[in-house]
């Protein structure tokens, strides 16, 4: 096992570590997806595609994996820089655009896993779910929907 992942042996055997390294993951939404991407990369997933058209705002810093230097930068681009600083050998594709029903059809979804970390302020997360259904494994960060009690 390469030195970078030696400590993973507590949880993962060498064969599984190699499988993880080759697994291709799509992360749609780089808000909460920023933490997911970093954890995946640190565990050894080195083939990531990150998608987000939003920009980093001051109000994101309390709950997303960005800092003040990233304010006004595209989230996918800022996350890419952070991930490259952790592992410059990783193959990370950046799509710095909002995912829409139209462009979803043009994005090559040749991944093993998709992570739906999109904001549920539109129907786009549902389009993603339908688009990948039956094709690849989909994880959603929105297991429970909640409202505010008044």
From TrEMBL:
<dbReference type="InterPro" id="IPR000594">
    <property type="entry name" value="ThiF_NAD_FAD-bd"/>
</dbReference>
<dbReference type="Pfam" id="PF00899">
    <property type="entry name" value="ThiF"/>
</dbReference>
<protein>
    <submittedName>
        <fullName>ThiF family adenylyltransferase</fullName>
    </submittedName>
</protein>
<keyword id="KW-0808">Transferase</keyword>
<dbReference type="InterPro" id="IPR045886">
    <property type="entry name" value="ThiF/MoeB/HesA"/>
</dbReference>
<keyword id="KW-0548">Nucleotidyltransferase</keyword>
<dbReference type="GO" id="GO:0016779">
    <property type="term" value="F:nucleotidyltransferase activity"/>
</dbReference>
<feature type="domain" description="THIF-type NAD/FAD binding fold">
    <location>
        <begin position="5"/>
        <end position="120"/>
    </location>
</feature>
<dbReference type="InterPro" id="IPR035985">
    <property type="entry name" value="Ubiquitin-activating_enz"/>
</dbReference>
């Amino acid at each position: 096992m390469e030195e970078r992942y030696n400590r993973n042996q507590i949880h993962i055997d060498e064969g599984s570590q190699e499988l993880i390294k080759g697994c291709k993951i799509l992360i749609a939404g780089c808000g909460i997806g920023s933490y997911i991407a970093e954890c995946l990369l640190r565990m050894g997933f080195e083939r990531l595609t990150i998608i987000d058209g939003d920009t980093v705002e001051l109000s994101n810093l309390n709950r997303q994996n960005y800092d003040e230097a990233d304010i006004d930068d595209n989230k996918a681009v800022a996350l890419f820089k952070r991930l490259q600083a952790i592992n410059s050998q990783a193959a990370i594709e950046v799509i710095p655009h909002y995912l829409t029903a139209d462009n979803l059809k043009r994005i090559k979804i040749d991944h093993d896993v998709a992570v739906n970390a999109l904001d549920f302020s539109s129907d786009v997360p549902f389009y993603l779910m339908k688009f990948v259904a039956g094709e690849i494994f989909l994880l959603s960060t929105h297991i429970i929907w909640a409202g505010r009690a008044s």
